[in-house]
Amino acid sequence: KAGVTQTPRYLIKTRGQQVTLSCSPISGHRSVSWYQQTPGQGLQFLFEYFSETQRNKGNFPGRFSGRQFSNSRSEMNVSTLELGDSALYLCASSGTGAADTQYFGPGTRLTVL
Amino acid sequence: QKEVEQDPGPLSVPEGAIVSLNCTYSNSAFQYFMWYRQYSRKGPELLMYTYSSGNKEDGRFTAQVDKSSKYISLFIRDSQPSDSATYLCAMSEGAQKLVFGQGTRLTINP
User: Fold this and answer.
1) CB distance from A25 to chain B under 8 Å?
2) Is the peptide bond before B10 cis (omega within 30 degrees of 0)?
3) Are B5 and B101 in contact (CB under 8 A)?
């Protein structure tokens, strides 16, 4: 079974621009979560989508948004990019059970200049 | 103070040694506990998953959870150079919305 895939793998943007990242979950998984990883703050939860609805949200500003499509694929968008948004953005998928664990993709490394 | 505390290391041990990694946490509502391994420029890979307190063993890896002390551990026996990576503890109230430790960078020297 194929793992979680994320595109693009690397991205360079300038301040003020916006960016869209994509995530395809493991086949059959309906929950998709997004995390931001930086050297200073570590891995932090952004939000989780299940059946096209945001089910959980972390403590990030409204510039960070996401959505999920009917095939469970998900996108996250960051508007008005800031230098501090430079990070590895990780997507994780899991099944429908409350105890289902999350499996991570390789991430998208975003650099904001 | 962070909800999950993990010593970032770095930790360097000789091949074959027993490695002990641990995390402490403050949220008593956490009931799902995980250890992930992350190689450089890769996504985290799930190593161990434990629900509530107790021990779990998988090959050379043993995970322990002590909810009364709010303390979790990961032991690696017969460590190999291929175990060199960053180890992240993670926990949650439900299985989603994981809260991670800072990660411990581990190097196994041949």
Assistant:
1) no
2) yes
3) yes
- Is B98 in contact with A45 (Cβ distance < 8 A)? yes
Are B24 and B83 a contacting pair, CB within 8 Å?
A: no
Given a cut of 70, whether residue B102 has pLDDT beyond it is yes
Q: What is the pLDDT of residue A62?
A: 96
Q: Which residues contact B37 (CB under 8 A, 6 or more apart)?
A: B44, B45, B47, B83, B85, B86, B87, B88
Say which residue, B18 or A99, is predicted with more confidence: B18
Residue in chain B lying closest to A48 (CA): B97
B106 min Cα distance to partner chain A (Å): 16
**pLDDT confidence band for B95 (50 / 70 / 90):** low
Report residue A98's pLDDT band, with 50, 70 and 90 as the boundaries: low
Q: Do A90 and B97 touch (CB under 8 A)?
A: no
| Mean pLDDT of all residues in A82-101 | 88
Distance from CA of B49 to the nearest CA of A (A): 8
Beta carbon pairs, A and B, within 8 Å: 59
Q: What is the pLDDT of residue B51?
A: 87
By C-alpha distance, which of A17, A38, A36 is closest to A104?
A: A36
Q: Determine whether the interchain pair B95/A103 forms a contact, defined as Cβ–Cβ distance below 8 Å.
A: no
